[in-house]
Specification:
Blueprint (H helix, E strand, L loop, with lengths): L10 H22 L6 H32 L7 H10 L9 E5 L5 H9 L4 E6 L10 H11 L4 E5 L12 E7 L10 H10 L1 E12 L2 H4 L2 H10 L3 E7 L8 H6 L5 E7 L1
C-alpha cells in the first residue's frame, strides 16, 4: 500500500476552475460569436464572457502548475522537500512526545515519527470543508502505509489547544496559521509554544510576512528575551525549499521556518 498525502492544491479546485473556464468559453461562443443575440446586448456579452474566459484560463493554468509543483509523485515534489526539511529539525528523546498542529494528511507528523521511532507523535487538525479530502482516516491510512506506529491523530483547534502547558518535547506546523482568519497570528504561535516543555524544540513553517504576522523580528527578539534558545527565522525561499521566483508565482513569498528551543 502506498501513502496518499494528497496535494496542497486540491484536485477538486483545479477541476472546478477548468470546468468554469470551459463553461465561460462556451457562453462566449454562443452569445458572443453567433447571431443568437444582437445589438448592444451582444457587445456586452462578448466582452463579459471573453474577459471571464481569459481570467479563467489564467487561473486554471496557475492552479495546474501549482498542482504539479506540489505533487508527491511529480518531478518537483516541493511538498515532500518541505516536509522532510522541517522533520530534520525535530529530535525527540526516547519516550518523548511531539505535536504537529494542522496535520492535514499526516505527512509532517508521520515524517517526524519515522525519524524518532522511540518517541510518540500526535497530529491534530480541524479538517475543514475547504480541504474535504484531508481527514483522520486518511492520516491513519498513510501512517499504516509508511509502517509508522508511533503516531496518532485527533481533531483539534490550533487557536485553543486541548493540552496542558508543557506537554510536548517538540511542536511543529507547516503552512497552517496563515489560513486562520485572525488579526493576531502571533497569538497562535504563543498558543503552540505554550504546550512545549522547557528544553523542547520547535519547527514552524509558514508565510511569515508582515501583512500576515506583523513584526516577526520583534517576535523573535521577545522569545530570546524570555529565554528561548537558538531561535532562528530562516528564509526558505532562498533555495532551501524553493526559489524566490517559485515562491512568488505560487503565492508563498515570505515563507520562513521558525526554529529553536524553549
Amino acid at each position: 500500500m502506498k501513502p496518499d498525502y494528497k496535494n496542497w492544491m486540491p484536485k477538486g479546485m483545479v477541476l472546478t476552475a477548468v470546468l468554469l473556464t470551459a463553461l465561460l468559453l462556451a457562453l462566449f461562443i454562443v452569445f458572443g460569436l453567433t447571431g443568437l443575440v444582437s445589438g448592444a446586448l451582444k457587445t456586452v456579452l462578448f466582452i463579459v464572457f471573453l474577459l471571464g474566459t481569459v481570467v479563467g484560463c489564467g487561473v486554471s493554468v496557475w492552479m495546474i502548475l501549482m498542482y504539479r509543483a506540489f505533487s508527491y509523485d511529480g518531478k518537483r515534489q516541493m511538498s515532500r522537500q518541505i516536509i522532510e526539511g522541517i522533520a530534520r529539525y525535530v529530535k525527540l528523546p526516547d519516550g518523548g512526545k511531539g505535536l504537529d498542529v494542522g496535520c492535514g494528511s499526516g505527512a509532517l507528523a508521520i515524517a517526524c515519527a519515522k525519524r524518532n521511532p522511540n518517541a510518540g507523535f500526535i497530529g491534530i487538525d480541524r479538517w475543514g470543508k475547504e480541504y474535504a479530502s484531508f481527514n483522520k482516516p486518511l492520516c491513519e491510512s498513510n501512517a499504516e502505509a509508511e509502517g509508522v506506529r508511533n503516531v496518532n491523530f485527533r481533531r483539534g483547534d490550533a487557536t485553543a489547544l486541548d493540552f496542558p502547558d508543557e506537554s510536548f518535547d517538540a511542536v511543529t506546523s507547516n503552512y497552517v496559521y496563515h489560513n486562520i482568519p485572525t488579526n493576531d497570528r502571533q497569538a497562535i504561535l504563543w498558543e503552540t509554544l505554550r504546550v512545549l516543555k522547557k528544553g523542547g524544540t520547535f519547527a514552524m513553517h509558514d508565510i511569515f510576512s508582515k501583512s500576515k504576522y506583523g513584526d516577526m523580528q520583534a517576535f523573535v527578539k521577545k522569545m530570546q528575551d524570555m529565554g528561548f534558545e537558538k531561535v532562528e527565522l530562516i528564509d526558505t525561499t532562498d533555495g532551501m525549499f524553493m526559489t524566490k521566483k517559485e515562491a512568488s508565482w505560487i503565492a508563498l513569498s515570505g515563507s520562513a521556518l521558525l526554529v529553536g528551543r524553549k
